[in-house]
Amino acid sequence: MTMTSTSHRESRAQRIALVALFAALMAAFGMIPKIDLPLGVPITAQTMGVMLAGCMLGASMGFQAMALFLLAVALGLPLLSGGRGGMGVFFLPSAGYLVSWPFAAIVTGLVMRALSRPAGTGPASPKRLALAAFAASVVGGVLVVHVFGVVGLMLLAKLSLLQAVIGTLVFVPGDLIKCVLVAVIVHTVARGLPDWRFGGRAL
Prior knowledge:
The chain is mainly alpha-helical. It is 67% helix and 0% strand. Helix 1 runs antiparallel to helix 2 (46-57), helix 2 (46-57) packs parallel to helix 7 (172-192) and helix 3 packs antiparallel against helix 4 (95-115).
């Protein structure tokens, strides 16, 4: 077996491990108690996991981690906050938000990758990476998630566009706090692990 083949297998194994790790992280965030709202969409910590997956793993692996997590949920594992799981959760008013997670991870990863690669200036500093993570989380983890969420509310809760938009705005302040926390985590990782491939650069 050649060195190239061995390296490729190790790299693939590392990617699989990271995808599984971030899917498990989503489950861990699900253990944080949710806050139920009359709208039928609970406030949870799990969107922060989506943001982290995009920023830390990049578009491809972030998508895979979220898809793996949702597959486990669909198979009945009670991994969503409040111990929810099964196919039924994809027919509730909150379904649009759930379905958005893999796509939000893609967008977050793409934005993170673009902003964390300063042209001609060498490696990005931890501060720049933190700012990139905040911006990527806002675009992917807030904007994309809420667009899907609004569509879900219109289709499943039978709300008008205006009602759905007003309803989803309740979550924005908390989501922005999550974006700040993601930026802090990325800054910490960048200082402790300067070789981490933010935005999905090749391992």
